[in-house]
Design goal:
The structure holds 3 protein chains of 3 kinds. Chain A is mostly helical. Chain A has helices at 2-14, 17-35, 41-48, 57-82, 91-102, 106-140, 144-156, 166-180, 206-225, 227-234, 244-266, 271-286, 299-314, 316-322, 328-339, 348-351, 353-374, 377-384, 389-406, 411-429, 435-457, 464-467, 469-488, 490-498, and strands at 183-184, 191-192. Chain A starts with a helix and ends in an 8-residue tail after the last helix. Chain B is α/β, with parallel strands linked by helices. Chain B has 2 domains: 30-124 and 249-316, Bordetella uptake gene, domain 1 (D-Maltodextrin-Binding Protein, domain 2), CATH 3.40.190; 127-240, Periplasmic binding protein-like II (D-Maltodextrin-Binding Protein, domain 2, 3-Layer(aba) Sandwich). Chain B has 11 helices and 11 strands. Chain C is mainly α. Chain C folds into 2 domains: 3-60; 70-134, no CATH class. In chain C, 73% of the residues lie in helices and 3% in strands. Chain C contains 6 helices and 2 strands. Chain C has helices spanning 3-25, 38-60, 68-71, 73-92, 94-108, 113-134, and strands at 29-30, 33-34. In chain C, helix 1 (3-25) packs antiparallel against helix 2, helix 4 (73-92) runs antiparallel to helix 5 and helix 5 (94-108) runs antiparallel to helix 6 (113-134). Chain C is flat and about 60 Å long. Classes of the chains: A mainly alpha, B alpha/beta, C mainly alpha. Chains A and C meet through helix 3, helix 8, helix 9, helix 19 and helix 20 of A and helix 1, strand 2, helix 2, helix 4 and helix 5 of C.
Amino acid sequence: MEIFQGLLYGFQVVLQPINLFYCFIGVFIGTLVGVLPGLGPAAAIALLLPSTFAASPVSAIIMLAGIYYGAMYGGSTTSILVNIPGEAASVVTCLDGHAMARQGRAGPALGISAFGSFIAGTLSVIVLTFLAPSLAKVALSFGPPEYFSLMVLGLTILTYFARESMVKALMMAAVGLLCGSVGVDSISGRYRFTFGIQTLMDGLGLVPVIMGLFGISEVLLNLERGKQKQEIFATPAKGLFPTREDWRRSTLPIMRGSVLGFFLGVLPGAGAIIASFVSYAVEKKASKYPERFGTGVIEGVAGPEAANNAAAGGAFIPLLTLGIPANAVMAILLGALMIHGLQPGPLLMKQAPDVFWGIITSMYIGNAMLLVLNLPLIPMWARLLRVPYAILFPFILLFCLIGSYSVTNNVGDGIVMWVFGVLGYLMKKFDYEAAPLILAMVIGPMMEEALRQSLILSAGSFTIFVARPISAGFILAAALLLILPLITRRREVAKAWTSVPQESAE
Amino acid sequence: MMKGLLGMLTVALLLSSASHLRAQSYPNQAISLVIPLAPGDAGDVAGRAMADELSKLLKVSVATLNKPGGGLTIGTDAVVKAKKDGYTILLTSNTALIAGRILNPETTPYDSFKDLTPLGMSTRTPVMFVVRSDAPYTRFQDLVEFAKKNPGKIRVGTAGVGTAGHFALELINSLTGAGMTMVPFKGASPAATALLGGHLEAAILAIGTLSGHLQSGQVRGLVVSSRSPPYPDVPLLTQIGYRQNIHGVWYAFFAPAGVSKEVTAALVAAIEKAVKDPSIVAKLAPLGMVQDYAPPEKLVTEMREEYQAVEEIAKKAGLVK
Amino acid sequence: MSRDLISGLFWLAIAIFFSIEGLIHLKLGAVRQPGPGFFPFWGGVVLGLLSLVLLLNSLKNRDRLSLSGLKSSKFLLATGAILAYLLLLETLGFVTITFLFLFLLLRLEYKGWVFSAVSALGGAVSSYALFQLWLKTQLPAGPFGF
């Protein structure tokens, strides 16, 4: 009952015109930031934080939260249209989303990601409303050993991102691990592979690497292809919204993506990007036609897009109930709450019920606003594809440049993007996939840190990974995932390992 | 097409050489305050608040510029290399000036004493040693006793190698002989989370991250680096019989070395007023930050003492060769 | 030379570099207490072994490599323009360098002078308005204050 009173109270707060206004501004900026490649929600929230000082705490937090989940909606747009992720959690959406756009199905792809985002976003707020305190305990039960085992499980899904050669996909994962090891080693404090370059001291930035591998390289390749590219896009978009068949195929992926994303979002550190990768792997595994993934399968868009939105919702739980930020964005929101004189954590619900329930209910309203905002934009985005590439590409490059620079205001990050842009171009020429690299680069450092912390905690004993039930469960699941396919489909696996990569169809 | 690139270069050269319009008395144009932290970070909030106040005092715009990364050394180095005209100033912390210099001299390409003009100490964030409130020890001495009897049983989370908390733990271990295990995390939040989840017995962190958990009563402070008004009962090490205190985090203003006397004087006077401004003091208190002004000479003295102390700790702990 | 052969050799070199660096410069540590070199070393070893598999496979199939794109003036100009943008950004200021950058690239695809100049100016000014004035990014100012 308390919850319903809280919700009612929250809606009274949010439905005040001023808060509705801030909510709209938040989701609008979020969509924009999501659409623009490079500039992500963390940077945008940090930059706009000072301008909210004048507003009331509720309004300020409602707006900043709106930027975060709004960015998850917008992020898929450029992934689908130009094969460049708008923010990190939309990398996976490129794989099938852009393939759909090339078949003239940009509309349905954008549509299903908007609807999927709405459904997942709303579901995650409902779960957040009712289960927040008990889920918070789950988040706390994750210590370094649990994270290590979870990351081991995460690595096993790498094989699902091999489109042609398994060897090459695994190679890219290894490269991702190596890229992740650049910078200060958090356990020993030693610098690794920095060559005395200050920019590299904190490691290779995820944003510059993604912008390089996906953004710059894509533009370079298209420039070289010249006119052909535009002809592909000149084919009229077949329908702007998902068909009944699209819906039938997307319903389960959206549900699965929501659940997965939500739970991974609750765990500090894991977050939206890992959730989207896991969801893609799960859909490929569950599909009757896994071999068609990567050629424009709508499940490959629906699942990950639902997952990253649900993760955005889940991430609020540890912040609101424990005062623990689950990711960089939540850390800034925590700072914002504190600047406004509020203490996030168990006391927030009692000390500032207007803020606690206001944020939660604003997410119901904000998700609805985003759907209303995004659906009419779809025809407009689809029309954007008719703009000649010769005019479009300088602006894409410009947005990538601004995005990579404005994360740290450091030209060095732009240079990192440039290097990975050229590398990404060569990788495409030589048939290497960038997705496994990104996944491993995210997982690798977390896995390494957790492993070494666990061994410090246990004074060098490996039993810590199997003696704790959650950790043991993940290890077992990872082992099963690795071993089962080897037994049941030995022949196919053997074939995949030695298969000759075809001359790229692209 | 190479012509285009050449053209760009020529224009660039022309523009950069035509930019100097020299002027009368300082300050007569916008000052940029470099903050080597990400926007929204506690130190950044302090810097922005004081920049607003400085704008009013100096009657020119004081715009903050965030240059995060490299444990504050990237932004600090940018100011070391900036023009010595007083229009680029810096708010940085002992992480960049002391820990960075001692632990990683090769990636900290400046001399904290020679390459910067000190303008005044502004803000302190005390470092606190905390345990979960369900822990059996209420006094620091009880914990030390337990740790001595059970080596390796007290595992203490820090925000990472080379942070103030890390040095503090090394000092505590060497003063007490408690032999507690250090578990480094990437930042203060993950360490606090692990403490709350029961994966650690204690943590030693800057107060900002802890204040929510302190107020809700989930964690309890056992010892602190300097007085923190909201927690008057937590003692300093010297108050419970040890000869040295642990060092907290502090922020201070600097200009590049070689800035003229009159510029320095103007800045020092304005900074003193901005730091002592009551509205800023009130605004930063909930973030665990204490405004504590010290003039340039005192700042340098404290820096030298701390540098020596920390270098000694680092050598003892085998962190430097 | 096939594509797999060339790229396999490249990654093999990277792998050897990281493993050696991890083994010698950083410390491997013990199994019970991995050092900073542990992950880079094993990451390098795995990459190296996979590269060898790829190299062996590549001997069986020989496809012709076409890297003519690398020599194309468009590739050089685009990568050169990005690099020049980064190197001159903090000297020239955002608006000036953005105008030059957009203008050069629009001209690259043979759009008219007037069209290129107008779009470049519009793009530079509106992106400044969007990012600097509205989203409050801290873009570098040039000698003219923008």
